Here is the input.
Amino acid sequence: MFVNRVSELELLEKRYASGKAEFFVLYGRRRVGKTELLARFCEGKRSIFFVSDLGSEISLRTALSAAVNTTLFGPNQMNAVYSTWEDLLHALVQAAQGERLVVVLDDFPYLVAAHPPLATILQRVWDQSLKNSQIMLILCGSYIGMMEETVLGYQTPLYGRRTGHYLLEPLQFKDARLFYPSFPLEDQVRAYAVYGGTPAYLHTIQSQQSLQDNILEGILTRGSFLYDEVRFVLQQELRELRYYFAIMQAIAAGKTRLNEIKLATGIDGATAYLDTLQQLHLVERNVPVTETQPQKSRRGIYRLKDHYLRFWFRYVHPNRSQLERGGAQIILENQVIPEIDHFSSLTFEEVCQQFFWQAGLSGKLPFVPTNIGNWWNANEEVDLVVLGENDAILVGCKWTSKPVGVDILADLERKAELVKPELGDRQIRFALCSRSGFTSQLIEDANRRQDVTLLDLPEIVGKMIFEK
Here is the structure.
């Protein structure tokens, strides 16, 4: 199932039609759908698509030689192995002289690991010949750290050669929910909280089963694909796993400030580990949306960036002893089910944030947002603030089983007085997003005002899906 990626395909097609040599770098976390995206892009095009592995230099050169020869000369027409990487790359130069040729080197860091001089060789051949050909070279990699070391970093031989690069992110809610359309809307949000937008994880969902059964059988049960997935992926990126695991488990448990993380883990050098996790896009540091100098803010908090990481470090990793002994049902009933709505509340804020971005950029708001995020101080917080040049919307996102009433709006108006000094002269409006609708009194009050918008779950989801 290939979902969305419309803008990414448009970007690649634009590069393809540029009429000049292209050196494009696509990277992102494992399982996020890079290979599927590139395979879809290459359909109907003259292309060489090569996926590297952990083989030796000669085995990889042999396999790539076969892929090149098949495209250039047809299957079984030429089985020769190019004796050097220079010869192989010069064959691509010749093949791309008068006709567009797409060359995808997937998992490129494996090639460099097998033959470290390859990056320098590629740089030299690019400068001498390839940049004057009709080639569209795409280097792709799953390990963000290795891609930045081998391709994107300032100290790498290939620095400055790329004509474009793109970090492929997980799917947003409006696309992720297409993997489980039969779920009730509330469970669609809960499923997004658990699985996030990583296509490989979404493919594991059995839509004919309930969300609870999917979690039980597909995540908590030993031997399932997702049970050890996080450990497998992180082992490829990180050393000293125990320190990183301790930090991520602390964040998943709600220890989001630096001092809290240090206290929970006992790691004095936690800042360095957090910096690495941010570079790998596993952890993000958030500051109030009104901050003008985010890097200097002392109000920063840390969150796990990926939804499934949050779930795994909250419910799988700390309960491995029980899960290894067949305790999946116990963990589901005693921990996951009682906490699933509290766990999903943060994700509901993210769904609402995505909604306001889409609404604002498509002209459905009174203004175009310049930024959207949370706001907080030592004692108070606002779920979302939608900032424009001259306007702001303060948003309350309530993932509760009861309809939202006038008291919630009054509390949001009270908090507006706290936020005002950081909003300048912006005109303030209010919005309430609710899982369970609104009381009749709040609906009546909102209808009398021009500065209050009420959005229930069906309206949020419906507008995300059907409005362009």
The domain at 174-338 is CATH 1.10.10 (Arc Repressor Mutant, subunit A). DSSP finds 21 helices and twelve strands in the chain.
